[in-house]
User: Which sequence fits this backbone?
């Protein structure tokens, strides 16, 4: 089942001689439960693409469908609700609220949505993330790896349809990177999360089911590794 479909997506900045096509007619789909990496050098358009999928930025043209819903047919209020409920965003620099504890940061999207947190579910997430003993700590009292775990907890706590991670290990050492990737795999296996990871690190990409490569805003390669009989290998 295709959960996410991107159709002829474009993002253009400027006009005339100053026009820059950050994302140039990109199309692909992601089935439920897949963990995919989108890779490319700096300026390839991968972060711009992720931000449009997460409804943080609007495309110039094209469509994004999530579970059959045309994301940008919604008004601004509906898009805000969409971001809180249907996507989980994870960034390289964590984006935690410094005056909130680990537990409060994880619960924040649910509280902003006016919903009551499930304490048992919160305890399970904290245990999975190895943060049970850090639940009352502020971000300044935690290491970078622990802060990124809180960021992941915030993204998965509301059980969104898709997790979007933008260079989630870019600010971490190799030990913490390995631990964060294991958390993504657990989230993918145990919580059946569909995950898109933006990265420039080919070692990270190799741990995913699928690797989509961007160059100059275009897809130049799309390889599904764990199902070789169905793999797309389009080298342009």
Assistant:
């Amino acid at each position: 089942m295709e959960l996410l479909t991107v159709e002829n997506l474009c993002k253009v900045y400027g006009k005339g001689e100053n026009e820059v096509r950050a994302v140039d007619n990109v199309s692909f789909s992601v089935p439920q439960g897949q963990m995919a990496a989108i890779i490319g050098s700096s300026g390839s358009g991968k972060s711009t693409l992720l931000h449009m999928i997460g409804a943080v930025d609007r495309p110039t043209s094209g469509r994004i469908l999530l579970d059959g819903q045309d994301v940008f047919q919604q008004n601004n209020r509906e898009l805000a609700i969409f971001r809180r409920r249907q996507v989980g965003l994870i960034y390289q620099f964590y984006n935690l609220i410094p005056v909130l504890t680990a537990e409060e940061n994880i619960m924040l999207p649910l509280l902003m949505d006016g919903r009551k947190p499930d304490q048992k579910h919160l305890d399970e997430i904290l245990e999975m993330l190895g943060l049970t003993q850090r639940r009352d700590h502020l971000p300044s009292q935690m290491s970078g790896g622990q802060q990124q775990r809180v960021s992941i907890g915030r993204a998965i706590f509301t059980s969104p349809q898709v997790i979007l991670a933008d260079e989630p290990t870019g600010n971490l050492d190799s030990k913490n990177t390995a631990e964060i990737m294991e958390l993504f795999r657990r989230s993918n296996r145990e919580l059946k999360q569909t995950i898109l990871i933006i990265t420039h690190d080919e070692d990270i990409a190799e741990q995913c089911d699928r690797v989509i490569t961007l160059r100059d805003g275009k897809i130049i390669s799309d390889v599904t590794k764990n199902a070789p009989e169905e793999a797309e290998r389009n080298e342009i």
About this structure: The mean pLDDT is 89. The helical segments are 46-53, 76-85, 102-112, 119-128, 144-156, 174-190, 202-205. Residues 39 and 213 are 5 Å apart (CA to CA). The first strand starts at residue 2 and ends at 13.
